[in-house]
């Protein structure tokens, strides 16, 4: 017998829910398109978001903080965004920082002012900030540094965080002592008392922490007033955006699947959910409103910071990828570790995110290679494992099985359509696509906006 449920079964239900249960999907309002990192970050999300933002009405960040560094190159000008959604470049769209983001106010205004000097005028008028977003304080950033020093001393290694205070701020949020935008804009005496308590708590945990509390409060009050005109109830703002007239809404993921606090290479991860669930919890929107989910991956793999990296190439290939790809962290200036494309992690990222299509960036960096390898499976003790190992000791020990492809040895940077690509490059792309089981919608062949081949 098939299970069916009707309003008649619940006599006390005065408002029969059957209409709701049978509601067709297109009744649910506008859909949001989500762009997510599918590797360890820096895949080129900024570039993909910029491409889509030119026709979006609203571009939202839903998690992370200014640990992110997203590069956008337009008309030869290079912008790097950390807290501002990359869509802020588009003067016709609104940008939103959702409740799931952690905001360092000095960082936000510094970033805005720096971009203003580059010609990005009027950004404050195009930015909406959720009143539920948590605040990163200067002392959170100092504590981030102290924790890294302690990890190094205790375990002989640290995480290699960006020291932007991300971990300590999400810890404050989870321990329910954090302070939010709405607190800063509410009763300032109350905010100050809670701020003093929070500093004291951290000082009792980290006696070396020095903080000029009164000076920080004075600055915070000023930042709060500058922020006030941008602040809205984020949930209601999104509700109206979803249920008003048709709108194109984009969500810009920060960090990436393998840095996700739940699904990443824990503990060498960041402190938020960088996978698709983060779009719902970080903006307060229902899963039914999620439309396309685009995963962004380089045509090879990079990682900043510490942690397992099965396809890493600590040899001439790794060095070539690092130098040709200018693989240097946008936020920290650290050299990125480089290796072959790892399809095991892309399949894992797809299991979690359900990508509807992939953007494969930086194909041009592979142009000079004689042969190109792709990791297709992991073996543990000689046996293939069908899943991505949770345990880092296991991940450190996996043997990677590779497929080898001949290099195309031709410049792809001027290619603008599929047919402009050498047959061997097409072959590489098709293999990746088939192996992940997700169509590749874009192929990146250069930094700037126009260097993107759209496949469909
Ligand atoms: P994000 O954090 O995912 O937005 O990526 P980042 O901006 O940190 O790093 C990506 C880097 O690759 C930036 O310097 C981009 O300008 C650059 N980039 C993106 N796509 C391409 C591409 O297709 N080819 C080349 N050569 N560079 C690219
Ligand atoms: P985008 O959005 C690359 C890494 C850090 C470190 C770990 C934890 O530009 O792709 P955190 O400061 O978040 O506590 O650091 O996560 N990390 C990133 N690596 N790109 C990023 O963002 C990153 N955000 C965090 O290097 O290893
Ligand atoms: Mg980046």
Protein described:
With 456 residues, the chain is of the alpha/beta class. Helices cover 32% and strands 20% of the residues. The strands form five sheets. A ten-stranded mixed beta sheet has the order 9-7-5-2-10-1-11-15-19-20, sandwiched between helices. Helix 4 (138-155) packs across helix 5. The longest helix is centred in the first third of the chain and has 18 residues, at 138-155. Mean pLDDT is 93; it is low at 1-21. Bound molecules: guanosine-5'-diphosphate, 6-O-phosphoryl inosine monophosphate and magnesium ion. Magnesium ion is lined by residues 41-42, 69-70, 330.
Structural class by secondary-structure content:
alpha/beta
Radius of gyration: 23 Å
What topology, given as strand order, has the largest sheet?
Answer: 9-7-5-2-10-1-11-15-19-20
CATH class value of the largest domain:
Alpha Beta
How many structural units, i.e. domains?
A: 3
How would a textbook summarize the main sheet?
10 strands, mixed
Estimate the global geometry from the Cα principal axes.
Answer: globular
- Tally of individual helices: 14
Determine the CATH topology of the largest domain.
Answer: Adenylosuccinate Synthetase, Chain A, domain 1
Portion of residues in beta strands equals 15-25%
Termini separation (Å)?
A: 43 Å
Low-confidence stretches: 1-21
Identify every distinct bound molecule in the structure, by name, code or SMILES: guanosine-5'-diphosphate, 6-O-phosphoryl inosine monophosphate, magnesium ion
| Helical amount | 25-40%
Kindly state the mean pLDDT as a whole number?
93
CATH H-level superfamily of the largest domain: Adenylosuccinate Synthetase, subunit A, domain 1
Q: Report the count of strand segments.
A: 20
CATH architecture call of the largest domain: 3-Layer(aba) Sandwich
